[in-house]
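for the recovery benchmark. tokens below, seq after
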């Protein structure tokens, strides 16, 4: 939690995406079961446990007219491959029923309107006197961005002269690029927000909010990777982030550059699209 606003809220949209991904995976399993069905033998496997070993039998439970009959036949030791196929067929039948039941349940969940509709469908007169227990993404982002804080700031002797499109002072051209691209995508961020790490504070270049998932990310840009002292200092800082639970690919974003290899707008755009939109 940063600035008193909770994180990790799961919206109906996120739930629907998770359900859709799960349904897609389950449908793949159904296709595989269907594809393998013709390769598996008919019949049902029966296992009988003796004192020293197990005995396997195959039961054919149908006749030429489709009527159920039971014809039991022992499976010999050199026919165990046949028992394996029968066991797979029995398992696939059980699995198919489970998968179909789960898909049905998930599709029913997708039809639910979610708690958001409870407030949105109220008449205007009632909305004016009811306190909604649900905050939409834009309202949440607005509240998150409105939290006041005191960053590092700039003193009178600071020669830094880089400003974003909205007039915010930052420390490098690359930070201007990152801030402007975030702003273009309407992604809220806080510049050099005081973040409690261990017994002290760090001031990450950006704390960024994914409005859809309401997750926060620390974004550090390492702009002098050809300076050994700078690299050593930032390796220690990243280690501190890791120890505090900020991990690359989860809730920590790192970009870097050197004089011969500047930061690319394409890289920044891709990070934004993959992790923050």
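predicted aa per position
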């Amino acid at each position: 939690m940063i600035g008193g606003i909770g994180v990790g809220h799961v919206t109906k949209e996120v739930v629907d995406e998770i359900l859709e991904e799960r349904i897609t995976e389950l449908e793949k399993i159904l296709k595989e079961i269907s594809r393998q069905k013709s390769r598996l033998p008919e019949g049902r496997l029966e296992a009988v446990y003796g004192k020293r070993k197990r005995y396997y039998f195959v039961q054919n439970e149908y006749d030429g007219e489709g009527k159920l009959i039971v014809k039991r036949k022992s499976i010999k030791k050199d026919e165990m491959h046949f028992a394996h196929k029968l066991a797979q067929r029995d398992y696939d039948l059980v699995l198919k029923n489970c998968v179909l039941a789960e898909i049905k349940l998930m599709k029913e969940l997708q039809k639910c309107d979610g708690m958001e509709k409870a407030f949105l469908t109220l008449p205007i007169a009632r909305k004016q006197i009811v306190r909604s227990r649900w905050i939409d993404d834009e309202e949440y982002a607005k509240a998150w961005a409105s939290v006041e804080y005191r960053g590092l700031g700039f003193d009178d002797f600071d020669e830094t002269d880089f400003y974003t499109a909205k007039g915010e002072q930052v420390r490098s051209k690359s930070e201007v690029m990152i801030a402007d691209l975030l702003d273009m995508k309407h992604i809220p961020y806080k510049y050099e927000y005081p973040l409690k790490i261990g017994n002290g504070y760090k001031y990450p270049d950006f704390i960024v909010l994914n409005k859809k998932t309401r997750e926060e990310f620390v974004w550090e840009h390492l702009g002098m990777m050809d300076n050994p002292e700078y690299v050593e200092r930032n390796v220690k800082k990243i280690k501190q982030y890791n120890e505090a639970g900020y991990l690359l690919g989860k809730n920590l974003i790192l970009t870097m550059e050197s004089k011969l290899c500047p930061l690319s707008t394409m890289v920044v755009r891709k990070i934004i699209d993959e992790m923050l939109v």
